[in-house]
Design goal:
Length: 268
């Protein structure tokens, strides 16, 4: 991902910063996403207190503040200075939290310097060209035996039924992801399961769990699942299906059909 593309993503999120928390609480797709994040973080941190945690692509700090309660030190990293400011204000009462403005393609910390690394919210899928390096950076800064959990856009999901050209590409190149998914003018890299497994092996990340969100909720067309204003009956349906998805999120084959997949790995 070139510097220009990184700055374009940063600019988009800086523009969204003022309303981002409201968007997250209103848009059915994002509400469903955060249901999974809020379920996973307590689950993945319940076994003890981490010494040092990285929240890579921390956004407005919604995960950072949760991680602050189970770590001696948490560092939030994001390319959007506007989001960093929101995150800093959200975590103001926590002395163990600090922030840095940078891309996950060049994390400014030493090798094996974190006990756990989290990266939720489409951060990796923003990196359309250098996505392998982004995952490699998450792995590089994790200590051996450390937890590395990140989210990617999934190629195979029910929403493909509304995108015949992308469905045809998926069927004819079933092992390859694509970068045609667009939201707010941003394009996202999607991943196939074999492609993801290959990258995990390359960077010595042992998969422990996979979780999907917006599984059956992806049956609702994008224009309703991504509603930012007054919610239609189809937006309400997306929320209802999102709640139905939660108990299925970590079960095969359902997680393979999530609009997004959260990967939980251990660095070997």
């Amino acid at each position: 991902m070139g510097e220009g593309a990184i700055q374009e993503v940063a600019h988009t999120y800086n523009q969204m910063a003022k309303n981002l928390d409201l968007i997250v609480s209103k848009v059915p797709f994002l509400v469903n996403s955060y249901l999974l994040y809020n379920k996973l973080i307590p689950k993945l941190t319940k076994n003890g207190r981490f010494k040092r945690v990285l929240d890579a692509g921390c956004g407005s700090g919604l995960q950072t503040i949760q991680l602050a309660k189970c770590a001696e030190e948490v560092i939030g990293l994001d390319i959007a200075a506007g989001l960093i400011e929101l995150a800093r204000n959200r975590c103001m009462g926590y002395q163990n939290v600090s922030f840095v403005t940078e891309s996950i393609t060049k994390i400014p910390f030493e090798n094996e310097s974190f006990d756990a690394v989290f990266s939720y919210g489409d951060v990796v899928s923003h990196i359309r060209e250098d996505y392998e390096n982004a995952i490699g950076e998450l792995a590089r800064v994790a200590r051996p035996g450390g937890l590395v959990s990140f989210e990617v856009d999934n190629k195979w999901n029910f929403n493909l039924l509304y995108h015949p050209l992308e469905l045809w590409d998926a069927m004819t190149h079933w092992r390859r992801g694509h970068d045609s998914r667009i939201w707010n003018g941003m394009c996202f890299k999607t991943f196939t399961y074999p492609e993801l497994q290959k990258i995990l092996t390359k960077y010595n990340l042992k998969p422990l769990e996979f979780h999907g969100h917006n599984i059956f909720a992806s049956l609702v067309p994008d224009r309703f699942a991504l509603e930012e204003g007054e919610r239609s009956i189809f937006g309400e349906l997306a929320l209802w299906l999102g709640k139905l998805d939660q108990p299925l999120s970590g079960i095969f084959p359902f997680y393979r059909l999530g609009y997004n997949i959260v990967v939980v790995t251990q660095k070997s």
